[in-house]
């Protein structure tokens, strides 16, 4: 357990959003977000849909597991809440943390109605800052489907560089193996 992480921020602010750690009873709002984006998420986040997307109860169990993993310093999962409406509109997490490096992977999505409005750019930039300056990670990784051009543009926009392709790295729910593109960002190249 890293004692210096006991007092990290649990809410991050951007111009349009609050990115905050999940709280008890956020499962209802999270299920609504998952259900409203079901078609996209089934292909891109099948593990999430299997865990949290089946029912409100499943979503609440997932949310509470995220809270526990935050406290255990295993994963930092947050909801993205719009300032104007206080509605949950997205999800972002720092996961697959290797404290030996230290490094972590970013995963994220936003409601399909808000794609291409720049919200994820400001959210991801803020989470990168949090990861480098508060979690004190030295490296961040993003993996995208080889044809997820929007996510690849987003990764580059916030400072990530392409590191290579991972062949047959991800199995789609249909059973087909597909390639992923890997992006990395190291703290030494991060400029506030």
Description:
- It contains 6 helices and 8 strands.
- With 192 residues, it is α+β, with helices and mostly antiparallel strands.
- The radius of gyration is 16 Å and the shape is globular.
- It has one domain: Aminopeptidase (3-Layer(aba) Sandwich).
- Helix 1 (27-36) packs across helix 4.
- A hairpin with a 5-residue loop joins strand 7 and strand 8 (177-186).
- An 8-stranded mixed β-sheet has the order 1-2-3-4-5-6-8-7, with helices on both faces.
Offer a quick outline of the entry.
The protein has 6 helices and 8 strands.
Order of helices and strands: EEHHHHEEEHEHEE
Write down the overall geometry: globular
Report the biggest beta sheet as strand number plus sense, adding barrel if it closes.
8 strands, mixed
- Classify the beta-strand content into a percent band: 25-35%
Main sheet strand line-up: 1-2-3-4-5-6-8-7
- Helix/strand-derived class? alpha+beta
Let me know the average pLDDT: 95
Protein name: RimJ/RimL family protein N-acetyltransferase
GO molecular function, one term: acyltransferase activity, transferring groups other than amino-acyl groups
Family: Belongs to the acetyltransferase family. RimJ subfamily.
Domain N-acetyltransferase: 17-182
């Amino acid at each position: 357990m890293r004692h210096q992480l006991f007092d990290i921020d649990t809410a991050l602010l951007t111009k349009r959003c609050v990115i905050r750690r999940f709280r008890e009873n956020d499962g209802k709002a999270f299920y609504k977000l998952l259900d409203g984006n079901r078609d996209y998420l089934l292909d891109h986040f099948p593990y999430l849909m299997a865990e949290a997307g089946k029912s409100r109860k499943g979503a609440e169990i997932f949310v509470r597991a995220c809270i526990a993993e935050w406290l255990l310093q295993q994963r930092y999962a947050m909801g993205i809440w719009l300032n104007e409406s206080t509605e949950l509109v997205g999800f972002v997490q720092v996961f697959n943390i290797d404290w030996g490096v230290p490094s972590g992977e970013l995963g994220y999505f936003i409601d399909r109605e808000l794609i291409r409005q720049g919200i994820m750019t400001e959210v991801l930039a803020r989470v990168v800052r949090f990861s480098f300056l508060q979690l004190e990670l030295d490296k961040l990784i993003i993996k995208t489907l080889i044809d997820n051009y929007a996510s690849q543009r987003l990764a580059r926009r916030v400072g990530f560089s392409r590191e290579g392709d991972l062949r047959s790295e991800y199995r789609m729910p249909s059973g087909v193996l597909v390639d992923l593109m890997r992006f990395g960002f190291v703290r030494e190249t991060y400029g506030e």
